[in-house]
Amino acid sequence: MGRLHPVFHTRLLKPYEPDVEHPQHVPPPPPGPIFETDPELYEVEELLSKRTRRNVTQYLVRFLNYGPEADEWIAARNITPDLIQAFESRRTEPKARKGKRRTKRKVT
């Protein structure tokens, strides 16, 4: 009995019925693309992170007027070079040290 996992029988399930008296908050639709001629272009607020998957560099992108739930990993080839350069320069800035640096002392 050491390998139990939470389960329940399917007879306990009931069909979903929306609550008419207390409807849940429905978020407004996201803003449209920045150019009507190219619906694939969206304005970027900032690049948040970087990763490499299958030899493809990807950046975690936060789009302007969208929340964190819309953050998406986008291949570097689909991001403008000036955004990537700004992100990389922000990452390589030296960080200020907090407090004194501790070193190990050799006891003789």
Distance between the termini: 54 Å
Tally the helices: what do you get?
1
Helix-strand string = EEEH
What's the number of extended β-strand segments? 3
What's the gyration radius in Å? Answer: 24 Å
Write a concise synopsis of the structure shown.
The protein has one helix at 81-92, and strands at residues 44-53, 56-63, 72-75. The chain is an alpha+beta fold.
Write up this protein.
- The chain is of the alpha+beta class and 108 residues long.
- The chain has a domain at 38-93: OB fold (Dihydrolipoamide Acetyltransferase, E2P) (Beta Barrel), CATH 2.40.50.40.
- 11% of the residues lie in helices and 20% in strands.
- The protein has 1 helix and 3 strands.
- The protein has one helix spanning 81-92; strands at 44-53, 56-63, 72-75.
Which descriptors apply to this entry?
3-stranded antiparallel sheet; 11% helix; 1 helix; 108 residues; OB fold (Dihydrolipoamide Acetyltransferase, E2P); extended; 3 strands; alpha+beta
Topology:
Layout: E1 44-53, E2 56-63, E3 72-75, H1 81-92
Antiparallel strand pairs: 1-2, 2-3
